[in-house]
Each structure stands twice: as structure tokens, then as C-alpha cells.
Amino acid sequence: MASSTTGEKKILTLKGGDNEEFILEESLVLQSELLKNMVKEERVSSIPLPSIKSKTLVKIIEYLKKHAELTPSNKEEFKNFEKEFVNVVLEELLDITVAVNYLKINGLLEFCCQAVADRIKDKSVEAVRKIFRIESDFTPEEESEFRKETPEAFEGDLDDTTN
Amino acid sequence: MASTSMELSSNIMALPSEVLIDIFSRLSVKHVHQLQTVSNQWLRTISSPHFRRLYNMKSMTRPRALVVEESDQTYSRPSGIGPLSRIITISTIDLAGDNKIQKEFSFKIVGREYSFCVSSNLIIFNHKVCNPTTREIIDLPNYSNYQSVSFDVGYIPYTNTYKIVRLFGTDRGANYNCNYASKILEFGFETLTLTDGGPIPSSWRSMTHREQFSVKVDATCVDGVLYCLVRKGDIKEDRIVSMEIENEEFLTISCPQEDNQKLFENGQLTDLNGKLCLAYYSKELSRMCIFLLKDPKNQTWMKEYDIHLPRMGDWVRIVGYSNGDILIQGKTPLLYNIKEKRGRKLRKSNKNYTRLYYDRCFTLDRSRLRMQRRESSPIRNFHRKVQNVR
Fold first, then answer.
1. For chain A, what are the domain ranges?
2. Strand pairing partners for B68?
3. Where is the F-box domain (chain B) (predicted)?
């Protein structure tokens, strides 16, 4: 993972939830406000991130690398990468969003929020509940009142499980 | 349960509320309203004033066009007996997308009274206010006996409130008509504050402040300040009376001067990307000249654009700014691209008002709110209600 000419570059270790270690250049993690503060203030060389799955961390590091390589000439390529980046199963997208919010990587957070919003867009209440596995905690009376008030909110898109 | 945190993380319920709010704020206001019924958590989040304010702030960057069409007046019954009525049709145009016009709903106004005003997201007519987002139509309290000149609406984003400002002539003489007077008259103001969720106050708040002028030419609200362009006899004496919507402080601003008198025939005001815009249109010259108030304190104007507008007809209005385009209403609404200096026409329609429109979480009266119905809702008739009011 480390390139051969990084003699002077600082190296940092991130420890994922399942104790897997990721070694990367310190400059990369500076895109994360949280890690930037940790590195600057405490001069640490290893940061444990127990709440983030390794699988999620791999994705985020992949993004950080791509983003660091972003130049005006490969903008299009980066856009395609971003599109592919969020083209994952919903659970994974939510994992990434939660982690990115925790790490405070602002640009990516915006992008993740939009990606989650895109999956909710135009979906009925029932479909949203199904996709996000949310159980209604309203009383049966409230529930039937809602259905009476806005029947269209409960119509259509019921079989949408593409997420 | 050692791995609880990891299992939880793959659930949308685990998203911190700030992230959930961010996600919701990217959806249409209609959809967001519907999603309140997903769960108690979503209901709490979406109905919180914090979310509603944030949503409204964000939507300032994505205006749509609101097109309000007014039908010709017809008699309620074919025999020609009975009060005249007209049908108001509300549509929106997605300016960022395909510019397609989408019909939202329509309603009928019955009666002789003819006040009609479309301003900053709200429509005011016949002692009523309509919020096109929620399709609420609610009676306004009675106002003073003085003759109305106009109703204008200001919006304060950080408190999510509207204020209706009613301008009236203070003379109660028998032959008095303040709308067409050429001499200098006295005018007064009264206001009504509408808070999110209501209720609508039971009376208007009258103000002691008076202004002297002969005609009110136009008005607009920019960044919490209402600006009225008024004429004092001669065109050269046009000036702008401004009122801070929140603390109701008044100020007078002089208009920019230019040599070409022909350009000063048709003054109009609008909010152009957060700045006060004073535009002059000359049909004879097919030109619109646009000034922006760069610094409200020092009253410095800048001539920003000079647009060539051929074949636009008599009645041309600058509407506002959206994504690099200036929306102009004429016989046909037009999106004028500032960079390319080129206009592209939108769908043509009769007798309409086009305004910029923002998706806002705002209800006039929560207790009466029924969440929005689909487009197919039948035309609603307010005949009986209007009669009751009188």
C-alpha cells in the first residue's frame, strides 16, 4: 500500500472495528476534520476506530485516495467514481454515511446524504418502511387516520426492493 | 451483545438526527410531508421547527416558478344572473430541470370584490390568503375601513414567518380613489404576522407611520426588507420607501439617475439573487435596464444589465433570478441567460402572474391542515364562504 518514495511522509495506522489495521499517509486523513484534529493535537501514529467496520473503512480510504488525486483534468473520472462509490446495498451506504459523519469528511457527507435521499425520493410511505426496515410505531387508529388523509402516500412503489 | 453498535449502524434509525435532517431537506416539501407518517421518529424530526427552518433556508437556492392563471369572469349561472366568478389555476415550473409546467390545483372565486395579489409564495384575494404549498385557503381578519391600495408580503427565514403589509389611503372622502390619483396623498400601513402553524391573528396591527406620494408603482421583499417604488407626481421624483419587516422601521431610498428618459417609463422592483433590483422597461426601445442596490446603507446603485428584449409585448416584468437565468414575464415567460446573453421562451399562457416560488415548510393553520391531495382534486368552490364573510 505504501509507495516506495514515502521516506519523509508521515505514516498513520487506522484500526477498524474488527481490529484490522490500515496503514496510510497522514496527509490523506487530513480530509477528515476529526482525524486532522487528533493528529495535530495529540501527535498520534495509530488511531482506533472501533465503531467503523473494516469493510466501510476500506471504502472510505479508497475515496480519500481518489479525492486526493482529483485535478481539473480528471474531474469526469472522479464523478464516475463517486457514482460507483454509492452504488452499494443500502446497509453499506448507511454504514458509510454514519462513519463519514463521525469522521467529519464534509464533501463526502454531502454526497452520501444526497445518495440516501435519492433512494427515498418518490417512494411511498410503505416502500420507505420496507426499504429501510422501519416498523410503524403508530397506533392502529393513527395509522388508519393517515391512510384516510393521504391515501396517495401509501400507494405505489410497494415492490421496490432494488435497494 | 458485544457487537450491538455494528449491527445498529446498518439501520437508518442509527443516523444522527442532523444527518437525517440533511437527507430530508433534499426532498420535495410534498414528499417530506408524507414521510411524517413513516414513524414517530420521522414525524418528530420533520415537524420540528428546527427542521422546518433549515429546509426553508436550503430551498432559497432552488426556486421554482409559480404561475397563477386567472380565467375571464363568467356568470355563475348561464342565465346571466348571480355573481361573477373566475377560476384561479396554480401551476409550477421546475426551473432547474426540464422547465415543464405542472398543474397543481385550481379554485374558484365568486364575487365582485377584486383584490388579487401574488406575493412571495402567498396569494391574497377577497379577504383570504392562500398558501399554494399546502393548498390552504383561510379568511383574513377584517381590516380598517380605509381603501386598500395593495397587499405585499415579506418573509423572515430564520423565524419562518410571513408578514402581510396592507397599504391604504387615509382619505375617506366620497369621490376619493387613491389608485388613480395624480395629486399627492397620504398613505398608511397595517400588518398581519403569519407564523408557521398559525393561528392567524384576529386583528391587523396598525402603524402610525404615514407616507406622502401619489402612486405606488411596485413593491418587493428582499432579505427581510419590503421595498415600495412610489411616484410623487413626476417620474423624476420616483423613490423607494423601505420597511424592515421585523422591526417595521422605515427608510427612503432615492432611485438611480440616467439621461435617457425613455427608459424610465416602467419602473419595477424585484429580488434578484438576494439583491434589490430596480428595472426599467421600454417597449419602444425593446430594452430592459437593470440596476442593483449594491449597498443599502450608502444607497449605491449599479447598472448591472442592459437587456435587449424584442417582441415581448406591452406588459413585461422582471421576475427574479434562478441558476444563472433571469426570469422575465411577457406575452410568453422567458428565461434570459446572463452569460450567454440569450433568452429561451417557456410555455405561453393567457392572463397570468409568474413569480419565483420556494418550497417551504409552512402551514397557515395546522389544526385545519389536511396533507396535500393529488392534482386530480376537484375545483373547490368558495361561493358560500365568501358570502358569509360579507
1. 11-120, 125-154
2. B90, B353
3. 9-54
pLDDT per residue over B253-274, tens digit each? Answer: 988 876 666 666 678 999 998 8
Give me the sign of the Cα torsion angle B166, B169, B173, B175.
negative
Nearest Cβ partner of A120 from B10, B15, B27? B27
- CB-nearest partner of A117 from B27, B38, B373: B27
pLDDT tens for B293-342 read 998 888 899 988 888 888 787 788 898 888 888 998 887 788 888 888 88
CA distances, B175 to each of A103, B162, B178, B189, B388 (Å): 72, 34, 10, 21, 28
Note if the bond before B201 is cis, omega within 30 degrees. no
- Give tens-digit pLDDT for B98-139: 778 888 888 888 776 667 788 878 999 888 899 988 888 999
Cell numbers given for A50:
472501533
Quote the CA–CA distance of B316 and B319 in Å, as a whole number: 10
From the list B5, B39, B374, the residue facing A137 with the nearest CB is: B39
| Cβ-based neighbour number of residue B127 at 10 Å | 17
- Domain spanning B62-357, CATH class: mainly beta
Domain A11-120 in CATH: superfamily?
Potassium Channel Kv1.1; Chain A (3.30.710.10)
Pick the closest to residue B269 from B313, B216, B312 (CA basis): B216
State pTM to two decimals.
Answer: 0.79
**Contact across the interface for B12 and A150, Cβ inside 8 Å:** no
**Are A150 and B22 a contacting pair at CB < 8 A?**
no
**CB B14 to CB A136 under 8 A?**
no
